[in-house]
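Give me structure tokens for this 185-residue protein.
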Amino acid sequence: MQYNEEFWNEYADKNESRYNEEFSKYIRDLAGSLPTVQSILEIGCGTGIDLRLFPKTFQLHGVDLNEHALEIAKTKLSNVNFQKGDITKLPFEDSSIDFVFTHGLMNYLENDVLEKGISEMFRVSKRWIMHCEKYEEVEKQIDENHKFRNMGEKWLGYKVKFVSDVNLHEDYGEDKTRFTLLKKL
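Here you go.
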């Protein structure tokens, strides 16, 4: 899918209705339970709904392509470093972020962008990588904008250990959502 600003502006405006406090607690509690996590990066952060419950003791970063979403995020979260950015060129040094995550982003990416994005996530991650995405064993198109993917198999060529690769409970996501937590080796 080519970047469609109108689609993503509308998506940002509707993002509040997608806020799932339980899921935000889940991410916060997970990151807080992992050893030595101080810095967190959400790629495709949108309006920042998944970063809202993190305490100010964390160094929080959010990257998104959509300026409208970032404007909303900045008004709601003053303690997060939000930047306009692309998953294929993340504005961070190698191994500089303790916990890197996506939520509902990977299903929207073209295959070549996805491959570059995974490489960038690996590059900037110091230790932990997590994503929650709509899942199917075999990739299939959902609609004109996105597709179900088996994200676990995308990481097989990287030096990572699968800590968890399970379907989330239906309360945490629409459709079939897969939670994958990786430890960079």
